[in-house]
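Chapter review: from sequence to fold.
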Amino acid sequence: MPLTRLSTVLRQSVEALEQEGRRKGHEAVVLGVLSPEGIRGPRYLLEGYGARPFIRMNSNSYLGLSRHAALKKAEEGAIERFGVGPGAVRFISGTYAPHVELERRLADFHQREAGIIFSSAYATVLSVVAPLTTDKTVLISDELNHNCIINAARLARPLEKVVYKHLDLPGLEQALQKAAALGARRVLILTDGVFSMRGSHAPLAEISQVVQQYDSQFAENAILIVDDSHGVGAFGPTGRGTEEYTAAHADILIGTLGKAFGVNGGYGVGSSGLIAYLRESSPMYIYSNPITPGEAAAAVASLELLDHLEGQQRLRHLHTMTSRFRQGLLSLGYESFPGAHPVVPLVLRDGALTNRLVQFLRERGVLATAIVYPVVPRGEDSIRFQVSAEHTQADVDEVLGILQEFKPHT
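The token string follows.
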């Protein structure tokens, strides 16, 4: 049956996004990667651009590990042993030795009792929040939390949802007071570790202190859940993320394998009792396949590498390049949000101007992405630059030179 009437409505919706400057548009297709050469880092070849090379400034691969020889060797070895796919959900027949090893390594990495892996960090958030929410639970969330936390709260059906203003600790305290007044038995406080559109981090030590002050008012605890997908591997002196950077400890920490660690998948770490419960109740653990054994083996190799000399050198280089790029933006007179994370927004506060600069960069061989409403609040339209350990000083300076060239056009 042809869906002609529905197709008309959907086409009009896409056209409206186009007219408003909010359509994401066609996705760039990467055809190949040129290895680092001389003073430059790797360059990317895109469909439709022939042999023209691009600097990639819009990738979550903060440590540049996705093509690392050790990770490829680990994945290839696991593929030879186990094949390319898990073949089933884990409780049926889809758990392999690399899955178990990875969960153990992740728990050790974050100094927790146990860990659990999922197909993505998005799936992890949904599958942690929903099973822990009852009709006597209040969810408290920062207003700039990632879309996965927003949708997890929608899926969870709690007693009440309370959203506090971004990083507003008095607002968080008021939300906890409201939860207690409602008679909640349990409260989940949800926050990003690093806010992905700003590159700023949550003050986890202060948040944890507020949560602890109110914990005794809830029969089943006040529980701090942190999604630190952009922090783990890329933030903190040894890459332990926002917890390490702020000297704090969340009750439940969620992370990703698909950003700094260079692989794929998501995970949660916490107490052994919590993880045992999630294995029995998390829908995307029970009913969805895990990452492949090869991906799990590659992630183990990534964790090992980060804790050795090369990994720590990459992390220090990442921090140095991040500081150079951030200071360069500011010296050119551009606005950015404060922070030390390799997400470095260039804030233009104008959607059309933001899209124009992205096109200007593309024409000069730089891949960057416009972030406009509704992905960010109105008036915060920006380009989210993301620095990587793959970038050299020459790469950073080349991009800054192009941004300086655009300045007279603003």
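Two observations follow directly from the output. The chain is about 40% helix and 15% strand. The mean pLDDT is 95.
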